[in-house]
Amino acid sequence: MAAVLGKYVINKDYRRVRITIAFHPQDRRFEVSNTAISRDKSWIVDIAQVFTADFKTIKFVNDYCTKNEDADQDEIFESIDLLKGIANNHIGLIELNSDLDIETITEIFIRINSQGARLSQADFAMSKIAANETYSGNLLRKCIDYFCHLAVAPEFYQQLAEIDLDFSATEYFQKMSWLKSVNDDLYAPSYTDMLRVAFTSEFKRGRLEDLVALLSGRNFETRSYTISL
User: Fold this and answer.
1) Cβ(124)–Cβ(131) under 8 Å?
2) Same domain flag for 66 and 106
3) pTM
4) How many Å apart are CA 46 and CA 60, to the nearest integer?
5) DSSP letter string over 54-82?
6) Which of 56, 88, 120 is the last residue of a domain?
7) What is the rounded distance in angstroms from the CA atom of residue 156 to the CA atom of residue 167?
8) 2, 8, 25, 145: which sits with the fewest CB atoms below 10 Å from its CB?
């Protein structure tokens, strides 16, 4: 989606970057865009341009064939149509009954994500936190992630202040300031560790499955679900 729509993503260094994918209309193949490709007139350097509202297929094909005399106009037209067809591809969607309990939903989540980049219950918990706009969950999710990174790389504090202006204006950021002076590499916490410690400390429970239930409104005493605890 980022490549098709020209959106920015956050890389492992927490910087906003573009994922630029190139397309060769004659060979009908994709490559990650690079300097060599940008100099080659037979490539579409960034496929995002094809998906803009003002993209004119006829004009593009005429210009492309002018620059690439060996290109067949009909084939280029077809290639562009196939490329634009990506926007109509269906994304797999699994709908669950609204009356399913959170334990079942968690189990389904884990099973579905058992292939490829495997996701854990901690990932599920982090997504639940981030999705809760009522309680500024997105900022809390960042807080957990940034805290773990700062515990390993204290020098990241100043960089964070520059790359995420919204977060650096929050109370979370101010309360993390002590980490910029910590050089103890005895322990490098992950966000799984953070979630487990916080949950155990407050609720005397250590299972992340229970944390997911809590984030879904589970009241462990009444065994019911409420908006807040």
Assistant:
1) no
2) no
3) 0.65
4) 13
5) T--HHHHHHHHHHH-TT--HHHHHHHHHH
6) 88
7) 14
8) 8
